[in-house]
From TrEMBL:
Organism this protein belongs to: Streptomyces ossamyceticus
Subcellular location: Cell membrane
Native organism taxonomy: Bacteria, Bacillati, Actinomycetota, Actinomycetes, Kitasatosporales
Protein name per its UniProtKB record: Cation-translocating P-type ATPase
Main location class: membrane
Catalytic reactions of this protein: ATP + H2O = ADP + phosphate + H(+)
NCBIfam families: ATPase_P-type
Residue ranges, compositional bias (Basic residues): 889-899
Record's compositionally biased regions (Low complexity): 21-31
InterPro entries associated with the record: ATPase_P-typ_cation-transptr_C, ATPase_P-typ_cation-transptr_N, ATPase_P-typ_cyto_dom_N, ATPase_P-typ_P_site, ATPase_P-typ_TM_dom_sf, ATPase_P-typ_transduc_dom_A_sf, ATPase_P-type_domA, HAD-like_sf
Topology term for the membrane: Multi-pass membrane protein
Compositionally skewed regions (Gly residues) per UniProt: 876-885
Region (Disordered): 1-35, 870-899
Superkingdom of origin: Bacteria
Pfam families, sorted: Cation_ATPase, Cation_ATPase_C, Cation_ATPase_N, E1-E2_ATPase
Length: 899
């Protein structure tokens, strides 16, 4: 292979730039996103997801259940004639909408920056002439020429091939490039749009383009828009219950007032004001702030949030379904295990960088220390067509040119201390028998300076470990075969390496591959990322069940799942064929799925969701797109991930680090905890206000609070302090508990009793103060007004996630400001006229402030005596579904495709 051919591109599995044969760059992106780009602008284009206009984005924000609650509050406030309060609520709506739209636009721009590239071109033969044309203009019947580094523009049949290897990992999940040749099995005689030529060249007759191609068929599975998030569903249910309760309370207050002879107009205004008091109108602002802060923190950790609600959704996840190749693994091949007739060794290092070490018996060794390993890797490096390219600027990653499997052998040899260039100079290649799928081996002949000849051969164990090929005894062959089988069970692709020395030039090729001596075995695999195992362990500790869905071989899937702790090596692995044949049983009964198609990945995600689980799907390939779209939250890799995956996902990991998912889950749980914290605070205050209005008349206070006073208290307590609660830090033990069951109400886990208890206490303190003021001749209504507001602010201080610290100083400032404004409502003449209050003495003010401290105390006491009930911990082995499984609706099997 010429150096010019080598320079055209890089093997798949890296995020290196690729250049098509006509020279257009696909910088920074792997093949399928180029395929999506190349099919956008032509008669056979795959329709791209259009960018939503601003008005549609705004409408989508206003349709959010939280915003609808706020709109109801604004409507009721306008009905009271209090235009100033209505203006404040409408301002909150505007802020919520602007934040949501800006976040979506920023996320879209970030994803577009990751996807920035020019549309690639293809070389096609038309009218007997070779032409370079935009890939989107390729049509069925075109003859397309492919060479190393090219992106396949459309589906086609292979007419001719020379050492043609195609990386199909983005479509199939298979980490090893597939050999292509005319005829034979369809998987070997055809190519698919969006794949990359890893080695060789060929001629292809195009058979399908656009939506008829493999890429297009996957695109049709992605037509269903994501549904509401768990938080949106919970708050929608909460809103319905709250609306019914508010209507009943309004009717009750109105009836009681009329029975006592109060004016009809006053009681109507009081009832509406009480309804506004019961609505936690700051809830949308709290949720939006919490989500926005979570999105910002996640962006600092290289996670791009494309949909703001996705931040909270991760905190509710009970099952993480993850792709293997490029997600849990590095998306490259590595020679990790070496076996010779003398002993075994392990190769350590990162990526394709030659620096690393080879370890035997716990000690690093070199070629000089271990002649057997040196002989093994020397032959593997000579019988090799790949090359390694150092980073251009000295700061990037090494890249593989050619077959990634052969590149892995070069890396292993370099880490032992062998020099490829020196080997090529000392043992130049003079003959070769190329690899082909029938023989399953490759053989090269090398001449030494003294005229002797070295024959080097490598291939599949079943091809080389045969008496007609090797001169070694049957005992050694049996040992080697048994070891190769064991390595294969561990998920390795095993290569056998053999060689022979000849004192004179060889006769015809038929004699080259006989009488060889076995040098050893090499176990090659796509290694797991260093962060994958800790990520899986952290997810299981947090009660999240991990499952593996891949298009790779079942043995490989089982090995990776066992190595990372997803399952034990003994657990069952189901396959796409069993799913297709209907013999796989319940899809939620296993946790490892191999040889799956995009449609089957979609079915697996649907099965878990049908079992009542909240599912996150992580992936990077085109074949992951439909499942990413249909999951409760899709998480795509940003660097190696395809554009299809990124556009289908809710969250994009810009650094491809799975550990970021754990941080995102923690942020999601923080958001949900803060929403519940605010609801406890706000609904307890609303309950107190309702009890004061209902019980006050029976204690000799006909109208405890005027409508304007209720609105003022609500504005101050639910305003800045309420919003500040959304910025509370995460609890220290947030990741030591399972997620909330999906069917649990947002007020579940004991929150309702705490709301009623806290509301009753605040109401009792307020009424006692009011009765005392009335009996002593003080302005009792003003005292009720001041104590009710101040005590609620004390509850806000007691609601902190980390009391006694300076975490979230915004809450301290907000409570202080709100307390000052509450006092101003009693002392400033303009506010007194607006609210109908009377000034209190300094002693009365001191009493009111002291009573507010009781709110803080009772909040801390009840949090200790009646803490939230934590969900049940999932089984330690992760073998059972997460919290909520078994209590929800049964699995629904569905037809292929999206509903």
């Amino acid at each position: 292979m010429s150096e010019q051919r080598r320079d055209r591109g890089f093997a798949a599995g890296t995020d290196a730039p690729r250049t098509t044969s006509s020279g257009s760059s696909a910088a920074g992106l792997s093949s399928p996103e180029a395929a999506r780009r190349l099919t956008r602008h032509g008669p056979n284009a795959i329709p791209a997801e259009p960018r939503a206009p601003v008005w549609r984005r705004v409408l989508q924000q206003l349709r959010d259940p939280l915003i609808l609650v706020l709109l109801v509050a604004a409507t009721l406030t306008i009905a009271t004639g209090d235009l100033s309060d209505a203006a404040v609520i409408l301002l909150v709506i505007t802020v919520n909408t602007v934040v949501g739209v800006v976040q979506e636009v920023r996320a879209e721009q970030a994803v577009m920056a990751l996807s920035a590239m020019s549309a690639p071109t293809a070389r096609a033969v038309r009218d007997g002439e070779e032409r370079s044309l935009p890939a989107a203009e390729v049509v069925p019947g075109d003859l397309v020429l492919l060479s190393e580094g090219d992106i396949v523009p459309a589906d086609g049949d292979v007419l001719s091939a020379a050492l043609l290897l195609v990386d199909e990992s983005s479509l199939t999940g298979e980490s090893v490039p597939v050999e292509k040749a005319p005829g034979g099995e369809p998987s070997h005689g055809t190519v698919s749009a969006g794949t990359v030529v890893a080695r060789g060249h060929g001629r292809v007759m195009i058979t399908a383009t656009g939506t008829d191609s493999a890429l297009g068929r996957i695109a049709t599975l992605m037509g269903t828009a994501p549904g509401p998030t768990p938080l949106q569903r919970r708050l929608a249910g909460f809103g319905k219950v709250l609306a019914a309760a508010i209507v009943a309370l309004c009717a009750l207050v109105l009836a009681l007032g009329l029975v006592r002879g109060q004016p009809v107009e006053l009681m109507i205004v009081a009832a509406i004001s009480l309804a506004v008091a019961a609505v936690p109108e700051s809830l949308p602002a709290v949720v939006t702030l919490a989500l926005a802060l979570g999105a910002r923190r996640m962006a600092d950790r290289h996670a791009i949030v494309r949909r703001l609600p996705a931040v909270e959704t991760l905190g509710s996840v009970t099952v993480i379904a993850t792709d293997k190749t490029g997600t849990l693994t590095e998306g490259r091949m590595a020679a990790e295990r070496l076996w010779t007739p003398l002993a075994e060794a392990t190769v350590l290092g990162n990526g394709y960088e030659p620096q690393g070490r080879v370890v035997r018996d716990g000690k690093a060794v070199t070629a000089n220390d271990t002649p057997d390993l040196a002989a093994l890797l020397r032959v593997a490096m000579l019988c090799n067509d790949a090359a390694l390219e150092p980073p251009a600027d000295g700061s990037g990653e090494w890249r593989a040119l050619g077959d990634p499997t052969e590149a892995a052998l070069l890396v292993a040899g370099a880490r032992l201390g062998l020099d490829r260039a020196a080997l090529d100079r000392g043992l130049p290649r003079v003959e070769e028998i190329p690899f082909d799928s029938g023989r399953k081996r490759m053989t090269t002949v090398h001449r030494r300076p003294d005229g002797t000849v070295l024959v080097a051969s490598k291939g599949a164990p079943e091809s080389l470990l045969r008496p007609e090929v090797l001169a070694d005894g049957p005992d050694l062959l049996a040992r080697a075969a048994a070891r190769a089988e064991a390595m294969a069970r561990d998920g390795n692709r095993v290569l056998a390496v053999a060689s022979a020395d000849h004192e004179k030039p060889l006769e015809p090729p038929g004699t080259w591959e006989s009488g060889l001596s076995l040098r050893g075995l090499v176990g090659i695999l796509d290694p797991p990322r260093g962060t994958s195992e800790p990520t899986i362990a952290a997810c299981k500790q947090a009660g999240i069940v991990p499952v593996l869905i891949t298009g790779d071989h079942p043995l490989t899937a089982r090995a990776v799942a066992g190595r990372l702790g997803i399952t034990s090596q003994e657990e069952e692995v189901t396959t796409g064929q069993r799913i297709r044949e209907g013999t796989a049983g319940e899809l939620t009964g296993v946790h490892v799925y191999a040889r799956t198609t995009p449609e089957q990945k979609l079915d697996i995600v649907e099965a878990w969701r049908g079992a009542g689980q909240v599912v996150a799907m992580t992936g990077d390939g085109v074949n992951d797109g439909p499942a990413l779209r249909r999951a409760d939250i899709g998480v795509a890799m940003g660097r190696r991930g395809t554009e299809v995956a990124r556009q289908a996902a809710d969250l994009v990991l810009a650094d491809d680090n799975p550990a970021t998912i754990v941080s995102a889950v923690e942020e999601g749980r923080r958001v949900y905890a803060n929403v519940r914290r605010f609801l406890l605070y706000a609904l307890a205050g609303g309950t107190a206000e309702i009890l004061v209005m209902l019980l006050g008349p029976f204690l000799g206070m006909p109208l405890p609070l005027l409508p304007a006073q209720i609105l003022w208290i609500n504005l101050l307590t639910h305003g800045l302090p309420g919003v500040a609660l959304g910025a509370e830090p995460v609890a220290p033990d947030a990741m030591r508990h399972p997620p909330r069951p999906p069917e649990e109400s947002v007020l579940g886990a004991g929150l309702w009793p705490r709301i009623l208890l806290l509301g009753a206490f605040v109401a009792t303190v307020t009424l006692v103060a009011g009765v005392w003021a009335k009996e002593t001749g003080r302005p009792w209504q003003s005292m009720i007004f001041l104590v009710l507001g101040a005590t609620q602010l004390g509850v806000a201080l007691g609601s902190r996630a980390r009391p006694g610290t300076l975490a979230n100083p915004f809450l301290l400032v907000a409570v202080g400001a709100a307390l000052g404004l509450q006092a101003a409502g009693v002392y400033l003449p303009p506010l007194r006229d607006l609210l109908g209050t009377e000034p209190l003495s300094l002693g009365d003010l001191a009493i009111a402030c002291a009573l507010s401290g009781l709110g803080h105390v009772v909040m801390r006491v009840q949090a200790r005596l009646w803490p939230e009930r934590q969900p049940r911990v999932a089984s330690a082995g992760g073998g059972e579904p997460g919290p909520g499984a078994g209590r929800s609706r049964p699995v629904r099997r569905r037809r292929r495709g999206c509903r």
